[in-house]
Design brief:
The protein has one helix and two strands. By secondary structure, the chain is largely without helices or strands. A two-stranded antiparallel sheet has the order 1-2. The model has no long low-confidence stretch (mean pLDDT 97).
Length: 210
């Protein structure tokens, strides 16, 4: 199969029967897949560790249980993609478009999601421990029971986000906008909420809020 970019230029070609196998082979060969057009591709379970996918279009693709640890996804389009259970530890995802993406149970520990757009994303139960979410857009995102401990959420937009039961221990929420967010039962011990907006937020049962 062929992997092409948005200009229809072939970036990699082989005789594999599936896009999953082709993409895995390309990454193993060290091929730069920057700007690849993988819209709707079935990459479930693919081994894409360290892949160079900056600017790639992976919208509505299936990346369920894929290994993207350490991948470069800067500016990538992952809108409405299925990333359920994916390993995205230490991935570079600055400016990535993750609107409406399914990240339920995904591992994003240590990932760089600064300025990423995750509006309406499904992230319940996701691991975001130590992730960089500075200036990220998380309005209306489902972060129920997510692990955001020690995450950097400086100036993050969390308007109307669902953070019920989320672990926010030690998180940096300086200047974050939590207006209308649901923080029922969230653990916010040692979190830094200086200059954060908590207007109309549901703080019932939240731990660590004075």
């Amino acid at each position: 199969m062929d992997i092409k970019n948005i200009d229809d230029k072939i970036l990699y070609a082989d005789d594999c029967a599936t896009m999953r196998d082709t993409s895995t082979a390309a990454v193993r060969a060290g091929i730069n897949l920057r700007g690849a057009n993988l819209v709707g591709a079935n990459l479930g379970g693919a081994d894409l560790r360290g892949a160079e996918l900056s600017g790639a279009n992976l919208s509505i693709s299936n990346l369920r249980d894929a290994n993207l640890r350490g991948a470069d996804l800067v500016g990538a389009n992952l809108r409405d993609a299925n990333l359920r259970g994916a390993d995205l530890r230490d991935a570079e995802m600055i400016f990535a478009d993750l609107r409406g993406a399914d990240l339920v149970g995904a591992n994003l520990g240590g990932a760089n999601l600064s300025r990423a757009n995750m509006r309406d994303a499904e992230m319940n139960g996701a691991n975001l421990r130590g992730a960089d979410l500075r200036d990220a857009y998380l309005s209306k995102a489902n972060l129920r029971d997510a692990n955001l401990s020690e995450a950097d959420l400086l100036r993050a937009d969390l308007i109307f986000a669902d953070l019920r039961g989320a672990d926010l221990r030690g998180a940096d929420l300086v200047g974050a906008n939590l207006g209308g967010a649901n923080l029922h039962g969230a653990d916010m011990r040692y979190a830094n909420l200086s200059d954060a907006n908590l207007s109309d937020a549901n703080l019932s049962g939240a731990v660590g809020i004075k």
